[in-house]
Write a structure and sequence with these properties.
The protein is an alpha+beta fold. Among the domains are: about 10-135, 2-Layer Sandwich (N Utilization Substance Protein A, Chain:P, domain 4); about 145-210, Nucleic acid-binding proteins (OB fold (Dihydrolipoamide Acetyltransferase, E2P), Beta Barrel); about 435-525, 5' to 3' exonuclease, C-terminal subdomain (DNA polymerase, domain 1, Orthogonal Bundle). The chain contains 22 helices and 16 strands. The chain has a 5-stranded mixed barrel. Strands 1, 2, 3 and 4 form a 4-stranded mixed beta sheet that branches. The chain has a 4-stranded mixed beta sheet with strand order 10-11-12-16, with helices on both faces. A hairpin with a 6-residue loop joins strand 1 (about 55-60) and strand 2. Helix 12 (about 350-370) crosses helix 13 and helix 16 (about 410-435) packs parallel to helix 18 (about 450-460). It is elongated. The chain starts with 11 loop residues before the first helix and ends with a strand.
């Protein structure tokens, strides 16, 4: 490679300028010098021709500028302005090989007004890009942190926050209701996202994010910072009310008391930061029923009924506790549901009693009509837990004989009547299936009953392909699900539909197995909250 020396242009002040700019912008000196080199290159190409490969170099120790034109030695010349043949190159230097460069030094550039302005723009742009990259690299690892800053400006409710070495944005919806900031006000927020955008890195802060409250408690409660107390969940109605679930990994430390602090000092510090947002501190429990009862504080709960398949929980409260359990505009039950992950249905004791009586009456009437017995026998069956004719027909005879007043004769007669009824009902359903014109493949689909087939046929679902084309919620929807009366879970419905798609030839058995494979679950510690249920709940009021 020929390295003919280029004409030096002494610029001893360049290094001090670069150092000053780098210090002010918080970037590396080399990045500023590279920007200057690009500016000089651009000016050189403007003077000597844009087609030429003009390169500038600033000596990192002396500050001298060297400007030169580069010609590449090529086997085949595609661009005469930047390349020359090996033959021509070796005339100048026999040692040159393909891929090396001939460097022709150029005289110093006398920057005119336009060239100087262009150079300035290039330098400013490169410095700005370097500054943005530095900002992104600094803040990308600070997601999930709380930071402090000064309000710089407000645009249509969104505020820009000066963080010292960067700017963050708090959108209007990420501010607490009725919260107003002026220029120069100090603001604290939670960084929930940092990403590159065309106008530079964007740092997004929030004061309504649930983790903002969790981090505030982490700052105020040393036991949380040390990992002795763990925050299991947070549910917020920003600016109004919030619930936070905590558990202690040390049996000697009360998690609720530690979060409340002496005379409420710790929780009040968080409340003050959140503009008076009321906070319920809930002891977490791995038992869903206990946890839901705790989460509904301050309401008292009389009875809890869980349905684990649908993740629904029915809570019975005393009549006078109904409004407290629901909360203003449903706030309390909504936050409890969000915190626990269970759908909560609240009933009063009177409502629950009425519903239970209605269910008993309906089941009794079913037995009266199907088995041709009187109300007394029907109620005996209901009280012993029988819910369907199928149970009466096929349970072991001993279970019927265990009912007070039932002997062998009564038990056998009930079983015969139940089986006769089911046989007649099956015949009726067979006729109805035939009338509806339901395809044989759909009737014989694993898990399909005659009742289901009739319900589908009446909804115009008559072929296996029609059924395979459905979605799970079309079967299980609480209001318009085609099979909603058959107590199918969503996972059952998915398996049902996938099996139909296998038989229809839409998917393979491998696809079927992969679709049903359980997802990887995150392990949760099996800790129990200290103390007795709901009485440990603490509420921080304004």
């Amino acid at each position: 490679m020929e390295t003919a020396g280029a004409t030096p242009m002494p610029r001893t002040e360049l290094l001090s300028v670069a150092e000053t700019v780098a210090r002010e912008k918080g970037i590396e000196r080399d990045e500023v010098l590279e920007a200057m080199e690009m500016a000089i290159q651009k000016a050189g190409r403007s003077k000597y021709g844009q087609e030429n490969d003009i390169r500038a170099e600033i000596d990192r120790s002396s500050g001298e500028i060297r400007l030169a034109r580069y010609l590449e030695v090529a086997a085949e010349v595609e661009n005469e302005a930047t390349q020359l043949t090996l033959e021509d190159a070796q005339r100048r230097n026999p040692a040159l090989q393909v891929g090396e460069f001939i460097v022709d030094p150029l005289p110093p550039i006398d920057f005119g007004r336009i060239a100087a302005q262009t150079a300035k723009q290039v330098i400013v742009q490169r410095v700005r890009e370097a500054e943005r990259e530095r900002q992104y690299e600094e803040f990308k690892d600070r997601v999930a942190e709380i930071v402090n800053g000064l309000v710089k400006r407000e645009d249509f409710g969104n505020i820009t926050v000066d963080l010292g070495r960067g700017e963050a944005v708090i959108r209007r919806e990420e501010l607490l209701p009725r919260e107003k900031y002026r220029r120069g006000d100090r603001v604290r927020g939670y960084i929930y996202d940092v990403r590159r955008e065309q106008r530079g890195p964007q740092i997004f802060m929030s004061r309504t994010h649930p983790q903002f409250m969790a981090k505030l408690f982490g700052q105020e409660v040393p036991e949380i910072y040390d990992g002795i107390i763990e925050i299991k969940g947070v549910a917020r109605d920003p600016g109004s009310r919030a619930k936070i679930a905590v558990i202690s990994h040390d049996g000697s430390i009360d998690p609720v008391g530690a979060c409340v602090g002496m005379r409420g000092s710790r929780v009040q510090a968080v409340v003050a930061e959140l503009q008076g947002e009321k906070i319920d501190i809930i002891p977490w429990s791995q038992d869903p029923a206990t946890f839901v009862v705790n989460a509904l504080a301050p309401a008292e709960v009389a009875k809890v009924v869980l349905d684990e398949e649908t993740r629904k929980i029915e809570v019975v409260v005393p009549d006078e506790q109904l409004s407290l359990a629901i909360g203003r505009r449903g706030q309390n039950v909504r936050l409890a549901s969000s915190l626990s992950g269970w759908e909560i249905d609240i009933l009063t004791e009177e409502q629950e009693s009425e519903r239970r009586q209605a269910e008993v009456q309906m089941r009794s009437q079913t037995f009266v009509d199907a088995l041709d017995v009187d109300d007394v026998i029907a109620q005996f069956l209901v009280s012993e837990g029988f819910t369907s004719i199928e149970e009466v027909a096929f349970v072991p005879e001993e279970e019927l004989l265990s009912i007070e007043g039932f002997d062998n004769e009564v038990a056998q007669e009930l079983r015969i009547r139940a089986r006769n009824f089911l046989a007649k009902e099956n015949e009726r359903l067979e006729e109805r299936v035939g009338e509806l014109g339901i395809e044989e493949k759909l009737k014989t689909l694993p898990g399909m009953t005659m009742q289901m087939a009739v319900a589908l046929g009446e909804a115009k679902i008559k072929t296996l392909e029609d059924f395979a084309d459905l979605a799970a919620d079309e079967l299980t929807g609480p209001e318009d699900g085609l099979l909603r009366t058959f107590k199918l879970t969503e996972s059952d419905a998915n398996e049902f539909i996938l099996r139909a798609r296998v038989i229809a030839g839409w998917i393979s058995e491998e696809d079927f197995a992969a679709a049903l494979a359980p997802q990887e679950e995150i392990e949760v510690d099996d800790g129990e909250a200290a103390g007795p249920g709901i009485e440990l709940n603490a509420t921080a009021d304004e």
